Amino acid sequence: MLPRQELTKAKRIVIKVGTSTLNYDTGKLNISRIEHLVRELSDLANQGKEIILVSSGAVGAGLERMKKNTRPASIPEKQAMAAVGQGILMHIYEKLFAEYDQIVAQVLLTKENSRQYSQYINSRNALMALLSMGVIPIINENDAVAVDELKIGDNDTLSATVATLVDADALIILSDIDGLYTANPSKDKNAKLLHEVPHITPEIENMAGGAGTSMGTGGMSTKIKAAKIAINSGCTMVIASGSEHDVLRRLLKGEELGTIFPAKETHLKQRKSWLAFGKQIAGDIIVDKGCEKAVLSGSSLLAVGILAIAGEFKQGNTVRILSQSGREIARGSVNYSSQTLQKLKGLHSDEFKNILLDNSPIFDEAVHRDNMVIMV
Ligand SMILES: Nc1ncnc2c1ncn2[C@@H]1O[C@H](COP(=O)(O)OP(=O)(O)O)[C@@H](O)[C@H]1O
Ligand SMILES: N[C@@H](CCC(=O)OP(=O)(O)O)C(=O)O
């Protein structure tokens, strides 16, 4: 089935709306757009679709309330603005959704919630319970507690993590632009809109630039990062304009709006998606061309193909597997620490016993294919 047609069948849908869509350039909330969004989402829920809204805008709403017109530079100030704004945002949503008799719930997440498998499953259970009750969860990052290493970092990535968590059929990212262009259109007047991106190649990644306004964060590059997560988890993603009339209804009828990133056929099992997207990356393993080919065709990663190791990691940590050119081809749970792998790299497993003098278990594979997820 064509990817646009697939969208017409989507039942569980995550919709992400960015600050640049929720706010005017003045920094004030775009009330009529929020009203329209709420109307469209309630209508989709009435059709029996399961809807999750990932909404940015807390910092923006906080800034407006505190009468500031530039995003603060320091993290504590940003956190303070988000804390002021999140309540305002929820109050608006609660009030508007109530007009359509639609119940909503606030869910605030951090990376911590996906790092531990038990917490990952707990968040999934809570979201599934809300969906089964016909409630629309409204998700944002828990900005007040999520400093640096706890931060998911941007709501594009958060929305893709959520889509993976709940096995969503589609992720729709609404922005202030109608999709991915061949270059940043604010800088290149000849940039053209791409209607479909069948594969995320390095060229596609290079097209994506940073945020367009002082309000938005991440720009297209975080949306491409989100697309990688979503499509590898079997979820089709679309980037479309939040200002396009009836954008959600039209997209879900198969209309060619925005840029579509079709889901990959292979749907990762829960544990594999957690492995790939839930856990923190502890380091990198750089492999030679032969090893890259073997990994991409489904083999385990053997030490003989390892050229170099970056970072310090322990056995069981998640590492990225990179090609010689630095492109991530896979990630997985590693059988040896970085210290041990430094000694084993380039060797065949029958040579390991000369190196591993202690009685530590000898694995043939540095990363077993069952604990590995292909990322291209
Ligand atoms: N290749 C590209 N195609 C489209 N937009 C791009 C591209 N590269 C950078 N951008 C910028 O990304 C912006 C959207 O991201 P962002 O400002 O973070 O908004 P949001 O708040 O919706 O996340 C666009 O307005 C545009 O200026
Ligand atoms: N958690 C922050 C959103 C951060 C973010 O990713 O913003 P955006 O790029 O507008 O989606 C907030 O609510 O302001």
Automatic annotation (TrEMBL):
Substrate binds at S56, D143, N155. The keyword ATP-binding applies. Keywords: Amino-acid biosynthesis, ATP-binding, Cytoplasm, Kinase, Nucleotide-binding, Proline biosynthesis, Transferase. It is found in: Cytoplasm. Its main location: cytoplasm. It holds the Pfam family AA_kinase. GO terms for cellular component: cytosol. It catalyses: L-glutamate + ATP = L-glutamyl 5-phosphate + ADP. The keyword Kinase applies. ATP binds at K16, S175, D176, T217, G218, G219, M220, S221, T222, K223. One of its GO terms (molecular function) is RNA binding. Residues 283-365 form the PUA domain. CDD domains: AAK_G5K_ProB, PUA_G5K. GO terms for biological process: L-proline biosynthetic process. Pathway: Amino-acid biosynthesis; L-proline biosynthesis; L-glutamate 5-semialdehyde from L-glutamate: step 1/2. It is an enzyme of class 2 (transferase). It comes from the Bacteria. Its EC number is 2.7.2.11. Belongs to the glutamate 5-kinase family. Catalyzes the transfer of a phosphate group to glutamate to form L-glutamate 5-phosphate. PANTHER family: GLUTAMATE 5-KINASE, ISOPENTENYL PHOSPHATE KINASE. This is Glutamate 5-kinase. It comes from Megamonas rupellensis.
